[in-house]
Design brief:
Blueprint lengths: L2 H13 L2 H8 L3 H15 L4 E4 L2 E4 L1 H28 L4 E7 L4 H13 L3 E6 L15 E5 L10 E13 L19 E5 L8 H8 L5 E6 L2 H9 L5 E4 L4 H5 L3 E5 L6 E8 L7 H13 L8
Helix pairs in contact: 1-2, 1-3, 1-4, 2-3
């Protein structure tokens, strides 16, 4: 039994089709069938129920798949560690953020002082990643919304939403916006898809404010331009407000209700996927940000 056989088996088990699996593995179908047959011979049992090109795991196959995943994870982790060792002290870390954050940037800069040979790749646009995977990143900074609910992380604090409006709008005369003032107003909301609309949309609905959602956009700059044009109001997280504040055609006001805010979370790649540099980075950031306990 070898690693290639195990990888071939896992791919076939996932796709449940020999033609699709052989295509994904860049193998001929006879070669894949031969590899699986040899694996079954070595294990002394069949792993699939076969129906032409379609294959389905039997009980023995499902049991072996569990072990196969463990084996491959250990192999892949070892390969990462060896790769890091082979290039000396140099290593590469990846950080994902939903927006630039001064506190995180300062901590990263301090880490780099003590680790000058480490390369850090920072992606500040994780919202554009359709299939966001924590295991692609050594660390993720994200808002605690429905899109990220599958992640387990550390709570860093709340970020308030500001109300953005055209300069000269009647509400611009108010120093503090009461939720009732928003009733039936025209709005533009940030949305990646209909199922990922920003949280104030649902909060307004829950408070029966009946905002007129005239516009949806997935681009922050388009959001700003629509509000500046005078046709709608919008909610802006404080951390995203820099460009709005520079726009003379806009006015930003705080909202009295603290529920118009979002929880900011931070999570790390799972321990078994971390390289040595990743572990050092996690320990440093945990201490620098005073993170306690386990990710949740």
């Amino acid at each position: 039994m070898n690693i290639s056989q195990i990888r071939y088996f896992v791919t076939a088990a996932q796709l449940q089709n020999l033609s699709k699996a052989s295509e994904a593995l860049h193998l001929s179908q006879p070669a894949l069938s031969k590899s699986i047959a040899k694996l079954e011979e070595e294990l002394g049992t069949e792993l699939f129920i076969r129906n032409g090109k379609r294959i389905v795991l039997n009980d023995q196959g499902r049991r072996f798949l569990e072990s196969a995943w463990v084996i491959l994870r250990h192999v892949d982790n070892t390969m990462l560690d060896l790769s890091e060792m082979s290039i000396g002290s140099a290593a590469r870390l990846t950080v994902g953020m939903y927006q630039p954050d001064e506190r995180i940037t300062e901590c990263i800069a301090r880490f780099m002082v003590g680790h000058p040979d480490v390369e850090i790749d920072v992606n500040c646009f994780i919202d554009s990643d359709e299939k966001l995977d924590i295991n692609k990143y050594d660390m993720l900074l994200y808002p605690d919304g429905s899109r990220y609910e599958r992640f387990r992380g550390f709570y860093l604090g709340n970020e308030p939403y500001l109300l953005a409006m055209p300069a000269g709008h009647p509400l611009s005369r108010e120093k503090l916006i009461e939720p009732e003032m928003l009733r039936s107003k025209p709005f533009i909301f940030m949305s990646r898809e209909q199922r990922y609309i920003e949280e104030p949309y649902y909060l307004c609905a829950g408070l029966n404010l009946r905002p007129r959602a005239n516009y949806f956009t997935n681009a922050r700059e388009q959001h700003r331009q629509i509000i500046s044009s005078g046709v709608a109001l919008g909610f802006v997280p404080e951390g995203c407000a820099f460009q709005y504040k520079k726009d003379d055609g806009l006015c930003l006001r705080p909202i009295s209700d603290s529920r118009f805010s979002r929880r900011i979370m931070l999570c790390f790649k799972r321990e078994k996927y971390l390289t040595q540099s990743g572990r050092e980075f996690q320990e440093f950031m945990s201490e620098a940000l005073n993170l306690g306990g386990e990710q949740k």
